[in-house]
Amino acid sequence: MNPSLHPSAAAFADTKPHYELLNGLRGVAALMVVWYHIFEGYATSPVTQHFNHGYLAVDFFFILSGFVMGYAYDDRLRKGTLSLGNFFKRRLIRLHPLVILGALLGVVSFLLQGGVQWDGTKVALSMVLLSFLMHLLMIPAAPGAGAEIRGFGEMFPLNGPSWSLFFEYIGNILYGLFLHRLPTKWLGALAGASGVGLLWFALGDYSGVGNLGSGWSLAGTGFVGGMLRLLFAYTTGLLLARLPRSKRPIKGAFWYASAAIIMVLSMPHIGGGQMPWLNGLYDALCIILVFPLLVYIGASAQPTTLRSERAYRFLGDLSYPLYIAHYPIMYYFYAWLWRNEYTFGQTWPIVLGVYALALLVGYLALKLYDIPVRRKLTTRLHRSK
Q1: Residue 204 near residue 98 (C-beta atoms within 8 A)
Q2: Contact at 8 Å (CB) between 349 and 36?
Q3: What Cα–Cα distance (Å) separates residue 71 from each residue in 13, 95, 215?
Q4: What's the pTM?
Q5: How many Cβ atoms are within 10 Å of 21's Cβ, its own excluded?
Q6: Which residues does 192 contact at the CB level (< 8 Å), separation at least 6?
Q7: pLDDT number for residue 385
Q8: Cβ-proximal residues to 358 (8 Å cutoff; 6+ apart), any chain
Q9: Are the C-beta atoms of residues 275 and 217 closer than 8 Å to each other?
Q10: Looking at the predicted structure, is the pLDDT value of residue 220 above 80?
Q11: Rounded-to-integer distance, Cα 258 and Cα 194, Å
Q12: How many other C-beta atoms lie within 10 A of the C-beta of residue 78?
């Protein structure tokens, strides 16, 4: 399924204050993604999954990424105080250490499960290693190709949610080369045009499953859907970073916005299989209207206490490691569920344990790997200047 989560460029906004409330909201969305993936194990189709719209968290992450990117880098790239090469190095330092960890966790999980596809077909070790190498280089696997080792059509079968990091990289490249140079009116026009495209994609059910959860596979219209999601969300985030924000304090903004995120992402499927356009319309309205409003509110508000500021920062720091490290656990969980044909009522205590384990793995990935690795790489980057 990025949380771009998605990683915040604010870590490198050297002289600017951070939007800690937005960090907190990103963390809330990441927590909801884990619930969404857990309930995928009990679903027989996109319609029957009760906890249904968690895939929309990626669009929220993309908007946040665009916002923080514009806030942190627009001025410096345009004025030349930050070179394009150093910009890309900073993005690699922010994103790629956890991409590597996600691939490592994924390959270990796959081999420990027997190295077989979903249908039990044994996979050659050479194909596992090829898939691992492609994951490290962010090269997506084509459906049915040897490197697509799970046989489910995923771009990155060792760690499915990495697909959003693939699009995050595309967004970073477009931003560094092109988007930061656009005048605000042209940026708005691009956001509007991609929003129309996203609405068209949703109402026409071009995903084929009655939702906008496209992008995780290259099958069918997957790449087109993923690009539309990225282009609208990323450009809208950049646009929000340039627009003036309310200076009036918004009391309780974090709790209202968090409640809205939880409600939007946990909504059951709308319209059933007979009217897929209704669910697509819901998805489009959430992405085009609700999420930009929530980012605007989050950017206009400030933490009211030091304790809340620290909590928001922690949630934001945890979001990306949790997003990228939890899915290998899900592969085990799905295999256990499907092999035994368990229901949620039979397994809810295990579900709580799986969720707690995902949080623990994400926390350890943050503290023992992500923070020290990025700190060391950032120090080297500054020394090389």
Answers
A1: no
A2: no
A3: 8, 18, 26
A4: 0.94
A5: 26
A6: none
A7: 64
A8: 34, 322, 325, 326, 329
A9: no
A10: yes
A11: 26
A12: 11
